[in-house]
Design brief:
Number of helices: 4
Shape: elongated
Largest sheet: 2 strands, antiparallel
Distance between the termini: 75 Å
Strand order of the largest sheet: 1-2
Number of strands: 4
Mean pLDDT: 78
Length: about 150
């Protein structure tokens, strides 16, 4: 395919400019797939603006080697933590890892036989005497179980 000069319109200033055969060959040798959108004057102005922005951000050629990479490279450092061996834990280990003896499995809910302290309060909605698992604060509403569930939408 033989190349010929092409007349194009600049996307920035709107002026017509010629994309010469020499420019087209240079574009092909660099692997550019598209024709330029800007005239040479606007291209140079854009280059200057971009270079000024990079310099303001600290990426000048003088200190380009001082910029740190975004993420660490290379192998990870060895971990100091070693998990306990699998299998049955001794009594000392179970206390150390906060587990009671006996069966393992699901967590939560078990307070080791201790029940949470309850406080007396009057329901703000129905006026019924109730027990709540927190200390009521003056000026804040407190609800019995039924009124709380009704307000919550259960």
């Amino acid at each position: 395919m033989e190349l010929a000069d092409i007349s194009l319109k600049c996307a920035d200033c709107g002026q017509d400019f010629i994309h010469t055969v020499a420019d087209q060959e240079r574009y092909q040798s660099r692997g550019f797939a598209h024709t330029p959108k800007r005239c040479p004057t606007c291209r140079e102005a854009r280059r200057q603006k971009t270079a000024a922005g990079k310099q303001a951000a600290g990426a000048s050629e003088d200190n380009i080697g001082n910029i740190l990479p975004a993420r660490p490279t290379g192998p990870r450092p060895p971990r100091d933590f070693r998990p306990p061996p699998r299998g049955r834990m001794g009594q000392r280990d179970s206390a150390r890892f906060g587990r009671g003896g006996g069966s393992g499995g699901g967590g939560g809910g078990d307070r080791g036989g201790m029940s949470r302290e309850r406080h007396s309060a009057v329901c703000s909605a129905c006026g019924k005497e109730t027990q709540v698992p927190f200390k009521p604060i003056q000026g804040r509403p407190v609800y019995c179980r039924e009124c709380y569930r009704a307000r919550k939408g259960e």
